[in-house]
Amino acid sequence: MAPAPSIPKAAFWMALSIASFLGMSVAGRETTAELNVFQVLELRSVIGFFILLPLVMTSGGFPAMLTKRPFTHFARNVIHYTGQAAWLYALTLIPLAVLISIEFTTPIWTAVFAVGFLGERLSRPRLTAILLGLIGVIIIVRPGVSSVNPGQLIVLGAAVCFGTSVVMVKSLTRTDSVVRIIFWMLIIQSALGLLPALYEWRNPPLALWPWIVAIAFTGMSSHFCMARALAYADATLISPMDFLRVPLSALVGWLLYHEQIDIFTAGGAALILAGNLLNLQRKTPRVAEAEAATP
Questions:
Q1: Could you give the C-alpha distances from 284 to 123, 127, 158, in angstroms and in order?
Q2: Which residue range(s) make up the domain with 38?
Q3: What pLDDT does 283 receive?
Q4: DSSP annotation of 33
Q5: Structural domain includes residue 8
Q6: Segments in the chain below pLDDT 70
Q7: Assigned domain for 117 exists
Q8: Three-state SS for 18?
């Protein structure tokens, strides 16, 4: 049974998801400096499986992981794996804040696909929130001021994959538990990436293992928390909240990698925050219906 709609709970899980994604960005930059992208993804999936195992056991064990929608899981993970590989590769080419900023065309694709495939309503407040976030991203990136880095186009392709994946996760939460969704993500993506990882495999140095474990943990927790958030609210409400990762990633880049935060980043971040506040003040139709039915 799907949980009752709740904006506060959705916001809580989304905040944890954002923190996990930021941690994964830092761990991804550190690991891809030493290892190829496919090996990083393979190690993340394998280690993530063992991290998830206790949750699998407390959720009914392996029999409870059986799904009636294997093809949806497979399609979702092919798309998501492609996006993850592109995202990690772009991470080696462009600054963290720029990468996250361009990635934030993802909510645009999510909103469009959610309306088309899930039947969600793209209301005026939600559209305004998305547009404010997108304008904020454009102000931060400032396209046309300098030449386009190939990494920018690569991460744009990743954003399309992520937007599609979010909609498919939302669909899966209607029939499958979050643990089951993450279980199949780790299994399928490990199988997809095994041969590419082995092709250029190198033994990670000892000092790199904490970062490898970190990317495995944050990679799993980010999707676990995202799936939990999607179970409590519509994708078109959740996605604009994720815009907060843009100013936060700029802050992380400044603190850890000495990437400068300029007035454009600050102005864009302000618009993104405004869009998120507007979005959170509006109830989704199903949340309003649930509250009206509550005695």
A1: 9, 13, 28
A2: 16-293
A3: 47
A4: T
A5: no
A6: 1-2, 144-148, 236, 239, 276, 279-295
A7: yes
A8: helix
In a domain, 11, yes or no: no
Is pTM beyond 0.85 here? Answer: no
Which residue from 243, 41, 48 is spatially nearest to 139, judged by alpha carbons? 243
Identify the CA nearest to 12 among candidates 238, 219, 206.
Answer: 238
pLDDT digits (tens, 9 = 90+) for 230-262: 888 877 677 677 777 878 888 888 888 887 777
Tally of structural domains, the chain:
1
pLDDT tens column, 2-53: 677 788 888 899 999 999 989 999 999 999 999 999 999 999 999 989 999 9
Q: Is residue 6 part of a domain?
A: no
Whether 35 and 202 have beta carbons less than 8 Å apart is answered as yes
Residue 128: how many CA atoms within 13 Å on its side-chain side?
11
For 137, counting Cβ atoms within 10 Å of its Cβ (0-12 exposed, 13-18 middle, 19+ buried), the class is: buried
Angle at 287 between CA 286 and CA 289, to 5 degrees: 65
Let me know the angle formed at the C-alpha of 37 by 33 and 38, rounded to the nearest 5 degrees.
Answer: 145
Q: Are 223 and 178 in contact (CB under 8 A)?
A: no
- Using alpha carbons, select from 176, 218, 222, 162 the residue that is nearest to residue 73: 176
